[in-house]
Automatic annotation (TrEMBL), chains A, B, C:
Record Pfam families: PhoU_div
Highest taxon listed in the record's lineage: Bacteria
The protein, known as: Phosphate transport regulator
Family as reported in the entry's similarity comment: Belongs to the UPF0111 family.
InterPro entries: PhoU-like_sf (IPR038078), Put_Phosphate_transp_reg (IPR018445), UPF0111_domain (IPR052912)
Amino acid sequence: MRFRLRPQDDGFFELFAATGAILVEACRILTEAIGSDPVRRSELSDAMEEVEHRGDESSHALVRKVNSSYLTPFDREDVYQLGARLDDCLDLMQKALDRMVVYRVGALPDAVGELVQVLSRQAELTSEAMPRLRSPAALSDYWVEVNRLENQADQIHLRLLAEIFAGGYDAVEIIKHKEIVDTLEAAADAFELVAQTVETIAVKGS
Amino acid sequence: MRFRLRPQDDGFFELFAATGAILVEACRILTEAIGSDPVRRSELSDAMEEVEHRGDESSHALVRKVNSSYLTPFDREDVYQLGARLDDCLDLMQKALDRMVVYRVGALPDAVGELVQVLSRQAELTSEAMPRLRSPAALSDYWVEVNRLENQADQIHLRLLAEIFAGGYDAVEIIKHKEIVDTLEAAADAFELVAQTVETIAVKGS
Amino acid sequence: MRFRLRPQDDGFFELFAATGAILVEACRILTEAIGSDPVRRSELSDAMEEVEHRGDESSHALVRKVNSSYLTPFDREDVYQLGARLDDCLDLMQKALDRMVVYRVGALPDAVGELVQVLSRQAELTSEAMPRLRSPAALSDYWVEVNRLENQADQIHLRLLAEIFAGGYDAVEIIKHKEIVDTLEAAADAFELVAQTVETIAVKGS
């Protein structure tokens, strides 16, 4: 059953758009951190925590909004799932940066930069898609491209694993670098799951 | 749509309460295991397995109860999700103990005890909340506090990672200890997901 | 609310059956890879990728079918969840093989073969169950047995961890072998989650 939206339902799209913008900001921090030294990374980790707090507030505002709304723009379950999956993207980016800091890793392989570029592209596409959730069926370019980018992230990740294990690192360095690149790959997966939720919403609404 | 509960629906709350009590028991076993030697840990692992079997039985009783009930106290999806997420808490605590045994680790860093204390507090709060699911909106103190505890667990976990990698352990010991503390942190996350499900149930019912 | 199925709804069962057959094929590739040398494993990895593409196409056909159908044989949410969880099984099997290739591991412990045999049995049972989803209540033997096999996989996995850490491998080899066996165990878990979804579908339909 489909309800016609009333103007006041727009708040949902604004909250999703806010979270999208937060993800782009998190990617910007992560991108700078890749090329920074440990001191600067530690500062960026504080900046990331502040961004993550705003993401949390946005999530809670969403839950309260679902609570106080008689009508939601799409199934309540999907509002929750989309919110939770956007949270996952942010958590994983924060985790990757936290690990760089706590493990005091030095320069990272170049392909880590490529992987974060893919994440940044996924975040931009997600951020552009969120305010357009009013017409989810028009977002097929978005979810197709985010899936393609996830495959690309997967290929870069495999190359990174091969490089990390190729002989230049000792076992402890391997453990550290492996967790960082595995977490970045998990973030690319998380963006794909966001896109799948949007696809499901589009499918139900059509 | 909200149905008025009939007395016979109370069985759901009893089953959730039983699972809550099982989680408290699992935490007690885990707490003892932290300070024990490998022989005692192996015995405690058997005790944990027995507890986990009772958790499984409780889960299956829940599925059967959903099956045989025309009315459920809240959405069927949420009954399943709550059951599955309570299971996850138990599975992760069992996994942490199993790894201590199979890896034959010796004394653990003190902060592992702190982390298990946080889990114990989360388990107690969860256990107290379960019989009160009849009025989920009154449980906001519970979910706020479990979320706060998860943040605390996260901080302890980061300190533990820093300590484990600080130089006292060789690479193989790092792998073992890292998996144990990562699993305990995942258990704290799992308690937070239980609390999020309760919050969702409360939101829908209000 | 239950709808009577019309003949044209059969396409759902055919798509699930196709995915089941793909999982059996993936297990066959994985079984051969266990006993192969790195060159052959690399060829098998290409074969796995081709199988995984067909799995993806099958998933997308399922989403399109849900889209274009007014009636679905069971709750839309469960069609999506079942599809997603079948995908997870395939992804994890592909990941295990990819790691063997990228890490250039040599001969694997014998128990890895036992673990893949358990996966193969789970895949066969899943494949046999899929065309019978029309009468999910008759599938209890299937989900009970898949759960039992998961417990067996868990035991083999613990034995494998003990063996891997027992002293014959250096730290880097441990990291590589551990990820492979952890991924295979995760695949056994994923088959259990498929079976749980089928059980939920059966429970709702009864």
